[in-house]
Amino acid sequence: MTPRQSVFAAMCAGLGVALMAFALRHGQAAVSRTSLEHLGRRPAAPTAATVAMTPAPAWPTPAPALRLARHSSSAAPARPGPTRHPNPPPAAPDADLVPIRQVTFDGCCPGAWWAADSSALHFIDRPNGRLGVYGVPLRPPGSLPRMVDTALDLRDGGTRLVVHPAAEHSVVKDVESGLEWPLPTGGNPVRLAPDGTRAVWWEAPAGRAQVELLGKVYASGIDGAGAQAIGGLFDVDVVGFLADNVQVAVVGRPVRDDPAYILAALDTRTGALRELARGNWLSDVVLSRGRAWAAYVVSLDRRNPDANGVWVVPTDPSTGGPRKLDRFGGYRWRDDQRLVVVPMEPGSASHSIWQFDAAAGSTTRLVDPAAVPIRVANNDWSVSPDGHHLAFVAEDDRNIWVVELP
User: Do the Cβ atoms of 163 and 170 come closer than 8 Å?
Assistant: First the structure.
C-alpha cells in the first residue's frame, strides 16, 4: 500500500469500498470491484435481466420492508442502526416516507454489488457449504437469495468485452461471440474503452517502487494494434476512459519527491496531457456515471489546510474548475451530476446521507438520521446504477439494508 493510500484509508475507513465478483466455472479467486473496473466491466444502461438462477439453499425468513417517517423521531429504534420490526405498520402511499429494507439476515455479506439493471444485489456467500455469487432481488420484498450463473453474470456488468491477465499478456474476450485475443500488457492492469475500441494499461509495480518509479502508460486499439507508450507519472494510476472513449483520466505526481499529485486527461492517441486538478496526495478519484465530473480527496496539506477535503471537478475545463464540498466522508456518484456523501460525523450515533449537485454547487440532505437511524459499517455502501437506492452493511447486525433515495 502506498503512503497516500494508507493515509486516506485511515481517514475514511477504506474509502472506495471493494465490491467483489467470483467466477465459479473457471475456479478464479474473488476480485474486488476496483479490479472489475480495471477489467472494463462498466455499468450498462438498464436492460432486461439476463442472469439465470438456480434454486438456493435454505435461508432465514426475511422481515417485511419497513417504512419510517422522515421527520418523525418516534420512528427511530432505541439503538443506532436499523432493527427488525416484528409487526411493521402497513406501507402508506405517502411521498414523505422513506422506505428502508433489510435484504440479508445472517450477518452476510460485505462487499455486495448491484446488478446492472438495479434489480438485485449480488454478493459472495457460502450457505450450506455452497460457495458462490448469490443475488437477492429488491422486489418483491422478502425475496430469498439465489445462486447466480456467473458465466452470464459477466455480461451483467456492462460491456460485452472483458479482459483477464495471462502471464505476460492480457486476454480480451467478447462474451457474446466467444472470440478471444491477446493484448501486449506485460500482465499490468488494463482498462477498456466503454465503446470497445481502445485499451490502455500502465506499469504498476508493487510496494515502494510504485511510489518512487516513473510509471509509463500504454495504449492500443482494442485488438492490440498500434501499441505505444503515451506518457507517464510517478505513482501513476489510470482511473478510466472519459466520455469521448479516447482520453483517460490519470492520477500521479509530475515530480518524484513532491507530494503534489495531478488529476489529468491523457489522450490515448497523441499523448497530450491536460491537467484538471492538483493537490497534496490527491487520491480516490471516482468518475461520474457519464464521466462529466470527477470526485477526489486532497489530504495532508499542512501549508494550506483549507485545501484538505473532498472536491469535484468537471472533466471539460470549459465548464469550470474544482469545487470543494462542505462535508468530508465517503462518496459515490448517483448519476452524471449528483454525488451522494455519507459524512464522517465523530460522536454521532447514526449516519446522515447528503447529496451534492456538482453543477449547481448545492447540498441537500437525503436521509435524516433522526427519522431513519442508520450506521454504515466500514464505509461499505453503494448507490444503485439507476440512482434510486442506497445499499449498506449495517454496523449493528452486519446485514445488508437498502434505503430508497428521494
Answer: yes
How many CB atoms are closer than 10 A to CB 313?
20
Look up the domain containing 277 and give its range: 165-324
Q: CA 332 from chain center: how many Å?
A: 7
* Residue 326 predicted with pLDDT over 70: yes
SS3 161: strand
Is there a domain that residue 179 lies in?
Answer: yes
Contact present, 123 and 115 (Cβ < 8 Å): no
- Phi and psi torsions of 220, nearest 5°: -160, 175
Distance of CA 138 to the CA centre of its chain: 19
Burial class of 173 by CB neighbour count within 10 A (0 to 12, 13 to 18, 19+):
middle
pLDDT digits (tens, 9 = 90+) for 217-255: 999 999 999 999 999 999 999 999 999 999 999 999 999
Q: How many residues does the chain have?
A: 406
Domain count, the chain: 1
The answer to whether residue 370 sits within a structural domain is: no
Inform me whether the pLDDT recorded for 58 exceeds 70: no
Q: Residues near 124 by Cβ (< 8 Å), separated by ≥ 6? A: 20, 22, 30, 109, 111, 131, 132, 133, 134
Give the whole-angstrom CA distance, residue 61 versus residue 46: 29
CATH of the domain at 205: 2.130.10.10
Q: Could you write out the DSSP letters of every residue in 313-371?
A: EESSGGG---EE-S--EEEEESSSSEEEEEE--TT-SSB-EEEEETTTTEEEEEE-TTT
Cell numbers representing residue 152 in the block: 452470464
Three-state DSSP class for 75? helix
Q: Quick check: pTM over 0.85?
A: no
For cell 480527496, the residue is: 297
Q: Tell me: pLDDT of 391 over 90.
A: yes
Q: What is the C-alpha to C-alpha distance for residues 17 and 7, in angstroms, rounded to an integer?
A: 15
Q: Which residues have C-beta within 8 Å of that of residue 76, sequence separation ≥ 6? A: 68, 370, 371, 372, 373
Residue 363: inside a domain, yes or no?
no
